[in-house]
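Example record

The entry below shows one chain as it appears in the dataset: sequence first, then structure tokens.
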Amino acid sequence: MNKAIILVIDDEPQIQKLLEITLESNDYKVLQATTAKEGLLLAANHAPDCVLLDLGLPDMSGHEVLKNLRMWFTKAILILSVQNAESDIVSALDQGATDYLTKPFRNAELLARIRSAMRRNQTSDSIAVLTCGDLSIDLSARTVKKNHQFIKLTATEFNLLALLAKNEGRVLTHQFILKEIWGLGSQTETQYLRVFIGTLRKKIEENPNTPRHIITESGIGYRFA
């Protein structure tokens, strides 16, 4: 079985060495680039399974690299950056980043995020049933079971749950969810979204106050776990 390829685009020698050791010891093949130009070339020539991208590159903004990659690259892109402002995170996620980790990060969390992102690589709309722990979501029949018992959801609640589940592990911004579920012009209705998330949690979570499936990313959006 071929090793999954991870492309690291980061100009910090310490970070590159840390990632090389961490990833190779977990059986990934690592490609490394220190500039945006080199990274884009490696991505085009080697078809990595995942890209780890720093936003502070010497020759081009990481946001520009992300835009360029998303013109053709459909697999996971994780941002690793010291930039931790809410606006930077939301901007990167809206531009197509799969996930965002701020430096310094914990190796165990990074590996978990990579595994989650790469599982998403394998998820497609052709999958009829999504199984997430105690939940079973039948996309064709538009039904949901919790511990093998049917749960009654409204059409909007089902659409919202299906969107989150199909993007398992990825942070979806408020604006993205609102546009996907309610259409253009709804991106500012975050309170409306909060109400639907609350009712959905009451139906699918064991304890809605400490949710295990629909996780809040404060000020940014939601992640399905």
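Notes for this example: The first helix runs from residue 13 to 24. The mean pLDDT is 89.
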